[in-house]
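Hi support team,

I'm filing this because I wasn't sure whether my run with manganese (II) ion finished correctly. The job status page said complete, but I'd like someone to confirm that the output block is well-formed before I use it downstream. Pasting the exact inputs I used:
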Amino acid sequence: MRYTDKKSGWLKVTEEEKNSIFNFCDDYLKFLNEVKTERESVLFIREALINNGFKDINSLDEVRAGDKVYYINKNKSIYAAIVGSNPLLMGLNIVGSHIDSPRLDLKPNPIYEDIEQTLFKTHYYGGIKKYQWTCIPLSMRGIIVKTSGEMININIGEKDDDPTFTITDLLPHLANEQLQKKLSDAIEGEKLNILIGNIPISDKEGSKEMVLKILKERYGIEESDFISAEIEFVPSFRAKNLGFDESMIAAYGQDDRVCAYTSLMALLDVEKPRTTSVAIFADKEEIGSMGNTGMCSHAFDGFVVKLISKTNNNPYLLNDVFCNSKMLSADVGSATDPMYKEAYDIHNASFLGHGVELNKYTGSRGKSGSSDANAEFVGYIRGMLENNDVIYQVSELGKVDLGGGGTIAYILANKGVDVIDCGVPILSMHSPYEVSSKLDVYMAYKTYKTFYNN
Ligand code: MN
Ligand code: MN
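And here is everything the job wrote out:
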C-alpha cells in the first residue's frame, strides 16, 4: 500500500477487512465501558496476559525463547514481554502506551458543605478544558487505604441503579459576567466541585454529616480516609458507535487506552517472535511521566535487567540492549476537525479514517522537547507498513506556533532506543468524550502486530 495515495482508508480496505475492523472494535467498545482508570487497566491487562500464558517474571528463575512474562509496577503500570529467539543483545521491539487519562482527582481534604449542599473538592489531572467537565455525569473510581493497610475499592456511578455525580454551572440567565470572561478563565479550577448530598441530619448536623454517615455505613469510609486515597472522577457516558455509518467510536479515555488496548491485542497474537516483543503500559504520562509509575522512573529498566539476567546474560549489557532496540511510542494524535481547520497545516495533518498516524517528532516552539526520529528508522517503519498493507498517514500535531505536546517517546529515545510516535488520531482530545475512527483503531492494532513480527 503506497503512502502517496492520500484518500480515505475506507476506500482502500476489502469487504473482508472491513468486517474485521468492525468486529475488532466491538470488543474495544466493551473494554472502554469497563476500564476507566490506570489501576483498572492494570487489572484488565494482567488478566488478559495470564489467560494467554504470561507469567509474573518474579516467579521465574530463568526465562527462555518463547516464554511470556509480565511485571506489575505498584498496580499502576505494567510491562510485558515475549522472549524472542534472537539474543536479547540484538535489541527489543517495544510498543509503549499509557493507561492514565485526564480526569478529576479528589483533594486530600475533599468534603465541605455550603448552603446545605455537600461537595467534593477536586484537583484536575492532565490538560483539560475545564468548561467541558461541568454538567456531565461523573462516576467515582479508585481506592482508599486505611491506616491498617486495608484497601477499599470504589466504583460508583456506572450501574443503572447507582447514584450519579456532577459539577453544576451558573444558569445563562445570570451569567452575563461569566460569559464576558475568557474561555480559559470562565470556569476556575477551584469551582470544579462535585455535588454529593443535600439532606441535613438535624438543625445541628448538616448534609455533610449525612454524607459521612452514608459513606461509613455503606463503604466503611471515614472522612480522614480520603487523605490516603486515590479517587478519580471520570465521565460515566457509555462508549458508543458514532455516526449513522457507525464508523467511529465516542468514548471517554481513548487517550491513550486506544493504543493500550490495540498494543495488548497485538502482543497476545504474537507467537515465537525472533526479536523479543515488549509492551509498556505506563502511568502518569498526562502529568509529565514523573513519579515511580511514570516512564521517567527506572522501573522499566529494572524489568529489562530482569529479562537480561534471567536469560543468563550480563545485566551490564542494559545500555547495549536499549541502543539496539526499536520502539513505537503508541499515543494518540490529533485528527483534523472541519470546524477548526485553521489550527492545522493541511499538508501535514491527520485525517479520521486515513489510518494509523506516524509523527516523526512532537514538541512545541521549534520541536522543543521532542526526540525527532532518525530518517533511517522512519525509512524502516515506512517500509514495514507498506510491505504489510497497513494504511497509514504521516503528520504533525498542528500548526507550528499554535501549541504542542509530547509523549513518552523522548524518555526511551534518551536511553538510546530508536523511537517514533505511532498511534490513533482522535477528535476532541482530552475532552470527556473523545472520538476515534474504527479504521484507524484497527490499523494501529495491525501496525503493532506487524512490528512485533518483524
Ligand atoms: Mn496520550
Ligand atoms: Mn494526552
